[in-house]
Amino acid sequence: MTEAGGYVASFLREADKDRYFATLLLKPAERAAVQALYAFAADVASIRDRAREPAAGEIRLHWWVDAIEGEGHGNVRQNPLAGALLDAIAAYRLPPGPLLRLLAARRFDLYQDPMPDVASFEGYAGETVSVLYQLAAMALNGGEEVETGDAAGHAGVAHALVGHLRAFGFNASTGRIFLPLSVFSANGVTDGEILAGRESEGLFAALGQISDLAGEHLDKAEMAVRRMPRALRPAFAPVAILRAQLKRVAASTLPFATLPDTAEWRKLAALQLWSLRRS
Question: Distance between CA 98 and CA 127 in Å, rounded?
């Protein structure tokens, strides 16, 4: 592993351990490219928490746009994450369009507007998460475009729903609502009640419905992965961790609490079992 590759792997392990673990199932060359892709996504996802105000976040997002489009000032490759991403793009002919759309979608994170409805959430998940599954599969296909069917779409939505269900309380404490507000409204829950951390029967009903939706997308993703060529299935390994996380969320009676995560050894075991069953 090169020095830059070691930095990217270390960064990803700290920023997104679940995706890091999933990349351990890949061959070394492909692993480096997919880790670069995931590290880029993790860096972009963290901009909202690092930026003191939206304008600062917009500047960072635009820096990434310039880096991908080749218009950055100075030597973009001095940033090891950017250098690794550009290497992956070149080596596997990854199209820049989906990455630019990911950056555009992440502008939503910078502001306090709630996620309005399920359709908007699914679109957001498609641009920010499904795209990662799609491009990882392309890397595993030697850089050739690949049709993943419904696998990437459903996996991305399930992944995003589980992540935001787990982060529901934290996001509410910072004035943000990423889960579809329309589901809460249909159950008589207002955005003000969510931001105030107020529990109610309607809140539990809404979160239950969103958990069920996540489970439906996860089921559909797993069915679609089974229909894919075996060589491409490892690109979808992160879904192996989602089931246990979703069960913890669905069983919780503390919607605004930070839930304990699945033990790392259990995640690694789940990934290994998932890989064996699909190889």
Answer: 7
Domain ranges of the chain: 1-102, 112-279
Number of other CB atoms surrounding residue 115 within 10 Å: 18
Q: Are 183 and 204 in contact (CB under 8 A)?
A: no
Rounded Cα–Cα distance for residues 20 and 254 (Å): 28
- The C-alpha atoms of residue 63 and residue 60 are separated, in whole angstroms, by 5
Break the chain down into helix, strand, coil percent, rounded to 5. 75, 0, 25
pLDDT at residue 236 tops 70: yes
Which of these ranges, 100-109, 176-185, 244-253, has the smallest mean pLDDT? Answer: 244-253
**pTM (2 decimals)?**
0.94
Q: What is the DSSP track for 188-207?
A: T--HHHHHTT---HHHHHHH
CATH annotation of 112-279: 1.10.600.10
Q: For residue 59, what pLDDT is reported?
A: 95
The confidence score (pLDDT) of residue 146 equals: 86
